[in-house]
């Protein structure tokens, strides 16, 4: 467990049903263990995006991720009782690497078994698989 006084559970949130299940699980576990939940959403430009004319302006990718994080956490927080402190973080980068970096010093990393995949996800392996193999703390993969 975390050697500091505050226990921390990191959870990946991407707005998918699977990530909602992971967040729900993390909140229940945090209530049992007295931990704070660190909900993380990451975003990056799609592989097909070009500065010369992508499908939407760069700020829209970040804003869509910010809205997804806020909406997902708000929705699941309303379902789960008792209330648990949730820290929200939006980062730019690959989802798996962001979660792996955040797992440093965490007590637990929680991810869904399937999120918003892509062609690149199929080629490079899933976020949950990479987290399970490389996280710096125990990992829970929540199946929908």
Describe what this molecule looks like in 3D.
This protein is an alpha/beta fold and 144 residues long. It is 42% helix and 20% strand. The chain has 5 helices and 5 strands. The chain has helices at residues 17-33, 58-79, 95-102, 119-124, 127-134, and strands at residues 8-12, 36-43, 86-92, 108-112, 139-142. α1 (17-33) links the parallel β1 and β2 (36-43). α1 packs across α2 and α3 (95-102) runs parallel beside α5. The protein is globular and about 40 Å long.
Question: First CA to last CA: what distance?
Answer: 26 Å
Tally of helical segments = 5
Strand count, sense and closure of the main sheet?
5 strands, parallel
**Which consecutive residue ranges, at least 5 long each, have pLDDT under 50?**
119-125
How much β-strand is present in the residues? 15-25%
The shape is: globular
- Class derived from helix and strand content: alpha/beta
Percent of residues in helices comes to: 40-55%
Strand neighbour order, sheet with most strands: 3-2-1-4-5
Strand and helix order: EHEHEHEHHE
Count of individual beta strands = 5
The whole-angstrom Rg is: 15 Å
* pLDDT averaged residue by residue: 85
């Amino acid at each position: 467990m975390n050697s500091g006084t505050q226990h921390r559970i990191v959870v990946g949130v991407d707005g998918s049903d699977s990530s909602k299940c992971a967040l729900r699980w993390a909140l229940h576990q945090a209530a049992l263990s007295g931990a704070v939940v660190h909900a993380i959403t990451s975003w990056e430009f799609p592989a097909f995006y070009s500065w010369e004319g992508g499908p939407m302006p760069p700020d829209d990718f970040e804003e869509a991720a910010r809205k997804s994080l806020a909406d997902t956490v708000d929705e699941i927080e309303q379902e789960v009782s008792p209330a648990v402190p949730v820290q929200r973080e939006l980062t730019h980068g690959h989802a798996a690497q962001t979660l792996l970096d955040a797992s440093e010093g965490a007590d637990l990393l929680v991810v869904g078994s399937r999120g918003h995949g892509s062609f690149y996800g199929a080629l490079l392996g899933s976020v949950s698989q990479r987290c399970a193999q490389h996280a710096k703390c125990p990992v829970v993969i929540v199946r929908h």
